[in-house]
TrEMBL record:
PANTHER family: GNTR FAMILY REGULATORY PROTEIN, TRANSCRIPTIONAL REGULATOR, GNTR FAMILY. Transmembrane segments: none annotated. This is HTH gntR-type domain-containing protein. Residues 24-91 form the HTH gntR-type domain. The lineage of its organism: Bacteria, Bacillati, Actinomycetota, Actinomycetes, Mycobacteriales. It holds the Pfam family GntR. InterPro entries: GntR_C (IPR011711), TF_FadR/GntR_C (IPR008920), Tscrpt_reg_HTH_GntR (IPR000524), WH-like_DNA-bd_sf (IPR036388), WH_DNA-bd_sf (IPR036390). SUPFAM superfamilies: GntR ligand-binding domain-like, Winged helix' DNA-binding domain. Gene3D superfamilies: GntR ligand-binding domain-like, Winged helix-like DNA-binding domain superfamily/Winged helix DNA-binding domain. One of its GO terms (molecular function) is DNA-binding transcription factor activity. Keywords: DNA-binding, Transcription, Transcription regulation.
Length: 235
């Protein structure tokens, strides 16, 4: 099933998912579905988003869809090219640096703020999925499991607003990863790092220890990604 025709299913899944920030309008819900498609790797940088089939699949008007697209343009996930349409953005090296500034504040901070009795089963499951995908040589599944790991880390803080912000950052990150070479090769060393963080949490070494591991992890990942990017302001 192609990404455009999968929008209706994605919208139904979103409506049935656990509550996050309340989405107040049809355009908010449409923006969330498109964002999740980007985070899942279904849209690559440079892909054009045709308005008519997307609006039809979501069961919304083109005006409502345009509101959603404008929202995602503001989030720097999409861009409008005059006389051509709306396209998925290609993040620049400056975007990459700023994404990691935000991630280093949010993700370790969520580990430090998580309740002592927080349920870490989703984080554990994401690590297991990453290991299984790596063993199966499924690069796309490794990337998706890594995204889920970081989403689950932020969810430990119990903040719907941080959950929403992380969904935006992860969508941008998926676009960044398209420039990093084969997904399996890039994510391989981070599967083990994810396991180290979960072990620190599970063994009771403390939230601070896990947060410090994650902070160092993000520094390494940023430098790794920068090595794959053209060193100019616009990627």
């Amino acid at each position: 099933m192609g990404p455009v025709h999968g929008f209706a299913e994605a919208l139904r899944a979103l409506e049935n998912s656990r509550p996050r920030v309340v989405l107040s309008s049809s355009s908010d819900r449409a923006a969330d579905v498109i964002r999740e498609h980007i985070a899942a790797g279904l849209f690559r940088p440079g892909a054009r988003l045709p308005e008519e089939p997307i609006a039809e699949s979501l069961g919304i008007s083109r005006n409502t869809l345009r509101e959603a697209l404008s929202q995602l343009i503001g989030e720097r996930l999409l861009e409008r090219i005059p006389n051509r349409g709306v396209f998925v953005r290609t993040p620049s090296v400056d975007d990459l640096r700023d994404i990691y500034r935000a991630r280093r504040v949010i993700e370790p901070g969520c580990l430090r703020l998580m309740p002592a009795d927080a349920d870490i089963s989703d984080v554990v499951a994401a690590v297991a999925q990453g290991r299984a995908a790596l063993d199966a040589n499924d690069g796309d599944a490794v990337a998706s499991a890594n995204q889920q790991f970081h989403r689950s880390v932020v969810a430990l803080a119990g903040s719907p607003r941080l959950d929403m912000e992380m969904s935006r950052l992860l969508a941008e990150m998926r676009l960044v990863f398209f420039r990093a070479g084969p997904a399996e090769d890039f994510h391989r060393p981070y599967v083990e790092r994810n396991e180290e963080i979960v072990t620190a949490l599970a063994e009771g070494r403390g939230r601070a220890a896990a947060a410090n591991l994650l902070d160092r992890y993000l520094v390494t990942a940023e430098q790794h990604l920068l090595s794959t990017y053209p060193q100019t302001g616009q990627g």
